[in-house]
Amino acid sequence: MTRALPAPLVKSLPFILPLSAIALARLLTHSAWAADNSGWAAVLFAWIVADSLLLALLAKAPNRKPGAFQVAGVLSLVSLVVLAGAAAPVRDVYFALPQVLIAAAATLTVFLGWSAVRIALAYRQTGSLIAGLGEVLPPILVKHMVSECQIFALGLFRWGVPADIPSGTRAFAYHTYLTPMIATFVTLQLIELSVVHLLLMLWNPTVAWAMLALSVWGVIWTVALLKSFRINPVLLTEHTVRVRSGMIYDFHVPRHFIRLDKGAFSADELDDKRVLNLAIMSSPNVSLRFAKPIVIKTFFGGSREISGVALRLDDGETFLTELAADR
């Protein structure tokens, strides 16, 4: 009896299969056969890249009918991958053919010009550059780009920014115990990336600089996370509890959903996937059980159903006292 593939894997196949085919074709351009038959290798590589990306576009387009703008975008991507991705002997074949370069340049020019027009029109209508980019790039990519830019700005700038506490809310911090641990982790990251970079430079400078860039981004991300814990405290309002954990979680729980008569979570309950444990690197001092499960958004854009949340607040007793008031 055959077993169906998981739904997330099925949804990812239009991305995984084309990328795998292109990666294998690129590997082929570095073979001895490609070096001896660079002309045939150039044709084969261009065909595989174009076929893979266009089939992926057809698979993802509504009713399998992509628009002219999407086709132009894929053809532009094909031009870039073909000209930049092949091994040197194969790439030399393309650069020796002026008509190939002219066609690639014309495709990129048309797509970039068309993109600029779409962005400008969307910006005029909405006043939002993000909305304009959404007319050109996949929405999920735009969302990721915006998120990464925000993380970058928070990690490098926004020093001393006050905590986000809207009027009419009571804030409860949870960053005091986290700050020393994460600051120590950042220090260890800096020491590690320096040592690893020096060792990799002795082996392969290209790999060393690539790993350094990734490591630096990891440090910036960690610093942004550290700041976000202070900026985004848990908020108690008249009707809801706004549960926040830095830049990772942010959701509202109606106060009447919360049951305070069941005590703290046991160790087994904390291991249950239905309980969201936000007491990072510590034991919780606040256990919020819900009368019925709620669905929350996760950091990577998914969703999760939970029936309770565990917190480690700097002043957990006061939080529970105020939460129990007027119930």
Description:
The protein has 327 residues and is of the alpha+beta class. 60% of the residues lie in helices and 13% in strands. The protein contains twelve helices and eight strands. The chain has helices at residues 7-29, 32-36, 38-60, 68-85, 88-95, 98-126, 129-134, 139-156, 178-203, 205-231, 267-271, 316-324; strands at 170-172, 234-236, 240-245, 249-254, 258-259, 275-277, 286-297, 303-311. It has a four-stranded antiparallel sheet with strand order 1-2-3-4, covered by helices on one side. A four-stranded mixed sheet has the order 5-7-8-6. Strand 7 and strand 8 form a beta hairpin. The chain is elongated, with a radius of gyration of 26 Å. The termini are far apart.
Spell out the key features of this protein.
four-stranded mixed beta sheet; alpha+beta; 8 strands; four-stranded antiparallel beta sheet; 12 helices
The gist of it:
The chain is an alpha+beta fold and 327 residues long. The chain has helices at residues 7-29, 32-36, 38-60, 68-85, 88-95, 98-126, 129-134, 139-156, 178-203, 205-231, 267-271, 316-324; strands spanning 170-172, 234-236, 240-245, 249-254, 258-259, 275-277, 286-297, 303-311.
What is the topology, as strand order, of the major beta sheet? Answer: 1-2-3-4
Estimate the mean pLDDT confidence: 87
C-alpha Rg (nearest Å): 26 Å
Largest sheet: 4 strands, antiparallel
| Gap between N and C termini | 55 Å
Output the helix-strand order. Answer: HHHHHHHHEHHEEEEHEEEH
Write the layout of secondary structure elements.
Layout: H1 7-29, H2 32-36, H3 38-60, H4 68-85, H5 88-95, H6 98-126, H7 129-134, H8 139-156, E1 170-172, H9 178-203, H10 205-231, E2 234-236, E3 240-245, E4 249-254, E5 258-259, H11 267-271, E6 275-277, E7 286-297, E8 303-311, H12 316-324
Parallel strand pairs: 6-8
Antiparallel strand pairs: 1-2, 2-3, 3-4, 5-7, 7-8
Helix pairs in contact: 1-3, 3-4, 3-5, 4-6, 8-10, 9-10
